[in-house]
Design a protein that fits this description.
The structure is a single chain. The chain has about 500 residues and is an alpha/beta fold. Helix content is about 55%, strand content about 10%. α1 links the parallel β1 (about 10-15) and β2 (about 35). The longest helix is centred in the last third of the chain and has 34 residues, at about 320-355.
């Protein structure tokens, strides 16, 4: 396989935008990269222009690509998730030797990564499934990288990944080993779910300010101010820039000419499905996913508005002090964000228990501090919280976050109340507040719910005056028997 030419540190397959930018990033950090793209003309164009004069070499076949690589060979796939990953794995396995490493850097489902890790290890090779976050800019200048898979592969990949990753806190890379099998892609999935939540919360803050009659330019300045405080983050920063942008064709604010129908690629949905499977109340991300679904039925909403808008017309309560209300919206956004991250970290904790992963939650927050879409100052608080207590059950019970929510709570309730009266939908902020109120309650109405289940289905219940784990059934009608349907504990 041309061993005399085996000079490349890593091979990369798939030269779409993310793949190209990762290759350029690796070359900038002193690595020689061999590349292959199924559409050869795209590869040749890349080599002739963006990659010209850099330590990047092309291959027109997989055999040629593998022949260019130093041992252990490291081949990174940046192709569409799903069947294409499996296809390339099957093509590569006969060309590789024991101990060589295949890396999947796409947005793969963590269960596929677990399956692939076991399969490839069974063939004597090693596998890494890694989340790569930060979009085009991150891939080029420093992404957040979340690797999992075969632990034995990590030492061979670590120098490259940590060199190209974003850096925070005096050059600490936003990349470290997450865990075995599907752990890396699971953490990336939760990252994306939290990203859905953050974006929806910002959208709801925007809608609340719209209801005050604020212009995009005015809102841009407000988001710019917010970006100097606790909400300092990439998403707040780009929201500031988006709201200031004008459309070249019409001169109108760009945001006003964009259709209000959101797309999604599935990672948010996967997060919610996993949360349901593990019985973790990740309510805010769920609402963010469903808000996108609601937005997508644009024509249906337009037709419904003609019928329902007059029926449900809501007169917004007067806002006496506009600046005070804007500050309330900021505080409601921050408190809701705390709940969203608390839910996300609870979900990772449950998944780690289920899959026997040893996740470092403070380390994960650190990996998200830079490079990725949800990068923010806020994540440093989470790293600190887990540094103080590595076995932390929920971020809400830590001194910093409980105090932050306590301070924001009156504003949070005012904003939700105003939204309800004004008819402005705030599903994420509202569900976050409901979660907080539920989590802080030592008694919920689930006792009535469980009585109903026992009444119609003999599903039994526990008693407040008996130890947990003992189940009872009542013959509610006097005509039922003593047979029960068993219990289900989430």
């Amino acid at each position: 396989m041309g061993k005399q030419n085996a000079s490349a540190d890593i091979g990369l397959i798939g030269l779409a935008v993310m793949g190209q930018n990762l290759v350029l990033n690796m070359a900038d950090h002193g690595f020689t990269v061999a590349v292959f793209n199924r559409t050869v003309s795209k590869e040749d164009e890349f080599l002739a222009h963006a990659a010209n004069s850099k330590s990047i070499v092309g291959a027109h076949t997989l055999e040629e690509l593998v022949g260019l690589l130093k041992r252990p060979r490291r081949v990174m796939l940046m192709v569409k998730a799903g069947a294409p990953v499996d296809e390339f794995i099957e093509h590569l396995l006969p060309l590789l030797e024991d101990g060589d490493i295949i890396i999947d850097g796409g947005n793969s489902n963590y269960q596929d990564t677990t399956r692939r890790t076991r399969y490839i290890q069974g063939k004597g090779k090693l596998f890494i499934g890694t989340g790569v976050s930060g979009g085009e800019e991150g891939a080029r200048n420093g992404p957040s990288i979340m690797p999992g898979g075969s632990p034995a592969a990590w030492p061979a990949v670590k120098p490259i990944f940590q060199a190209i990753a974003a850096k925070v806190d005096d050059n600490v890379p936003c990349c470290d080993w997450v865990g075995q099998e599907g752990a890396g892609h699971y953490v990336k999935m939760v990252h994306n779910g939290i990203e859905y939540g953050d974006m929806q919360l910002i959208g709801e803050a925007y809608a609340m300010m719209q209801s005050l009659g604020l212009s995009p330019d005015e809102m841009s300045k407000i988001f710019g101010e917010w970006n100097k405080g606790d909400l300092d983050s990439y998403l707040i920063e780009i929201t500031r820039d988006i709201l200031a942008k004008k459309d070249d064709e019409t001169g109108k604010p760009m945001v006003d000419v964009i259709l209000d129908a959101a797309g999604q690629k599935g990672t948010g949905k996967w997060t919610v499905i996993s949360a349901c499977d593990l019985a973790i109340p990740v309510t805010l991300i769920g609402e963010a996913v469903f808000a996108r679904c609601l937005s997508a039925i644009k024509e249906e909403r337009v037709a419904a508005a003609k019928v329902l808008a007059p029926v449900a017309a809501a007169k917004a309560p007067a806002v006496q002090d506009r600046q005070a209300f804007i500050n309330d919206v900021r505080d409601a956004l921050y408190a809701s964000k705390i709940c969203s991250y608390a839910q996300g970290f609870q979900l990772m904790r449950a998944a780690a228990t289920e899959n026997k992963w040893d996740l470092n939650y403070g380390g994960i927050a650190l990996m998200w501090r830079g490079g990725c879409i949800i990068r923010s100052r806020f994540l440093g608080r989470i790293t600190d919280a887990y540094a103080e207590n590595s076995k932390l059950v929920n971020l809400l019970v830590t001194p910093y976050f409980s105090r932050a929510v306590e301070i924001a709570l009156p504003a949070w309730r005012r904003v939700i109340s105003h939204a309800v009266q004004a008819g402005v939908p705030v599903p994420a902020m509202g569900s976050a507040l409901a979660y907080f109120d539920g989590y802080r309650s030592d008694r919920l109405p689930a006792n009535l719910l469980q009585a109903q289940r026992d009444y119609f289905g003999a599903h039994t219940y526990e008693r407040v005056d008996k130890p947990r784990g003992q189940f009872f059934h009542t013959n509610w009608t006097g005509t039922g028997g003593s047979t029960t349907a068993g219990t289900y504990m989430a």
